[in-house]
Amino acid sequence: MNEKDYMKMAIELSKKSVASGGGPFGAVIVKDGKVIATGHNCVTQHHDPTAHAEVSAIREACQKTGDFKLEGCQIYSSCEPCPMCLSAIYWAGIEKIYFANTREDAKNIGFDDSFIYDQIPLQPSKRSIPSEEIMRNEAQQAFRMWEDKDDKVEY
Amino acid sequence: MNEKDYMKMAIELSKKSVASGGGPFGAVIVKDGKVIATGHNCVTQHHDPTAHAEVSAIREACQKTGDFKLEGCQIYSSCEPCPMCLSAIYWAGIEKIYFANTREDAKNIGFDDSFIYDQIPLQPSKRSIPSEEIMRNEAQQAFRMWEDKDDKVEY
């Protein structure tokens, strides 16, 4: 299988997802030339706003490999990852992203990907969701505990 | 209970999380003055790079309310949400964010929040994880199916 075969699989997942009542998004994770996990958007079906295709595929891949990192893996997504999924890809340490539809395509059919991309870089005070910093001093205690812990598992 | 009480709860969760082997992060979701869900970072314990405190709390709140939106809810996080969690907060429609530690505090103890904030706004070609657009035309089919579907559940 090559890049087009993996993407074809992600696109098929996106079409099946629409047919079964989910959002029009599919994703496939590949390691060493083998598909190790797939996902499709099931936000409304699973009552989970984080259940995008890429996040679902990442979770499945990590369950299968028993690791919280996906080094040496590629992700094929039928649409450019939204900032949530892109950040999850960073946290997972995936090495390359292939995508088909763009964030503008997603915007044109009513999804907020592009809007959220615009919001993330703003200063918190400029964003549409207000945020407020409180009790930073108290919260530092947990960070000091983390620093002082000898047997911590870093990630 | 007031804002400080909810944040105190999130901070306590972050400290308990370190003690039990997780990352130093806790979150609480409040609706109509009641705590409806809590979360702590369990990335390494659950083998799930998306299991940040905020994402975990959002998932739990949605399971409890049976909805994929959390309108009228506030989130209290012991640390400024990373871009993944911030985006999840947008997708969930949470109305206000309270945070304690900042992204710089997280950076100073070894977490990539600040780095990912810097990556998200970049053009894909400038990011540390390469990405490539392929087969956009083929992928459009799923978007057309979505547009044409009369009984779709929008989100």
Low confidence ranges of chain A? none
Task: Give the chain pair forming the largest contact, with residue counts.
Answer: A-B, 90 and 91 residues
Average pLDDT, all residues of chain A: 96
Q: For the CA atoms, what is the radius of gyration of chain A?
A: 18 Å
Strand content of chain A: 15-25%
Please tally the helical runs of chain A, counting DSSP H or I stretches of 4 or more residues.
Answer: 7
Oligomer: homodimer
User: What are the secondary-structure elements of chain A, in order, as H or E?
Assistant: HEEHHEHEHHEH
Number-wise, the strands of chain A total 5
Structural class of chain A: alpha+beta
What does the main sheet of chain A amount to? 4 strands, mixed
Could you give the order of strands across the largest sheet of chain A?
A: 2-1-3-4
Q: State the shape of chain A.
A: globular
